[in-house]
Design a protein that fits this description.
It is built from ten helices and no strands. α5 packs antiparallel against α8 and α8 crosses α9. The radius of gyration is 22 Å and the shape is elongated. The two termini are 25 Å apart.
Length: 249
């Protein structure tokens, strides 16, 4: 799984880089506009180490934000399953909040919390919270009638058991949503760093943009892709292991 995910990313990155270089040589653009392959390799050798540490910093914040969003979405979805009105109200509130682009809300967050870890963590969680919440509400609000009827008829049904039944029956869907939202957490963290933070790969990309150094940006994008691929592989492995364990229970 790891090799397949990395290979897929490398193929996509190579295609994108190839198209960029084809544009460079096709239009006879200077190295200042689009760097040559030699310049990209030299930049990778010079900045690969620092950028790797920056990606690790960003990935750590993205993972924390992702976990925070999962916990919050689970809590709100469990509460939202109590009545149809509460669930409808939560969905409406989520839609309205999501309507505001993060670049419009981020300055307020940075003004209130500063440009440190808290702001990056909150923005990362906000970006991936919405799809998680909607999917979790759908899962926890949909009855599994055959199973739930048995426990209700025997008087053993509790809200905790109901949540466990619905989560177990939809474990594949939950895993897919969680893995898919992981990339959004990474995007949210990078956006936060790009706007106003002083650490992480988003901050490094912002500096490279100010310097008009496309080679640094290409190196950063390569390392971001590798880091994100590794995180997704880890999530898929955990999800598959959990599914196998639950099936054997």
């Amino acid at each position: 799984m790891l090799h397949r995910r990395i290979y897929q990313f490398l193929i996509i990155y190579a295609i994108g880089l190839g198209l960029l270089l084809a544009l460079k040589y096709g239009l006879n653009l200077s190295d200042y506009v689009i760097p040559s392959p030699d310049e990209i390799v030299r930049t990778f050798r010079s900045f690969g180490g620092p950028y790797f540490l920056a990606v690790f910093n960003t990935l750590a914040v993205a993972i924390l934000g992702h976990v925070l969003a999962i916990c919050l979405a689970t809590l709100v979805a469990v509460i939202g399953r109590l009545t149809a009105w509460i669930g409808s109200f939560i969905r409406t509130a989520a839609y309205n909040i999501q309507a505001y682009p993060i670049v419009a809300v981020a300055p307020i967050i940075f003004i209130l919390l500063g440009d440190g870890l808290q702001s990056r963590l909150l923005i990362a969680a906000m970006i991936c919270y919405f799809p998680l919440l909607l999917s979790f509400i759908g899962v926890f609000s949909e009855p599994i009638r055959e199973i739930e009827h048995f426990y209700e008829s025997t008087g053993r049904m509790t809200w905790r058991l109901q949540v466990k039944i619905r989560a177990f029956e939809n474990i594949q869907k939950l895993t897919t949503v969680i893995v898919g939202s992981a990339t959004m957490a990474m995007v949210g963290t990078i956006v936060a760093e790009f706007i106003a933070a002083t650490a992480g790969i988003g901050y490094s990309i912002r500096i490279a943009l100010y310097q008009s150094d496309l080679a640094k940006i290409l190196v950063a994008l390569f390392l971001i892709g590798v880091g994100t691929s590794l995180y997704l592989v880890g999530l898929e492995w955990v999800g598959n292991a959990l599914q196998k364990r639950l099936k054997n229970v």
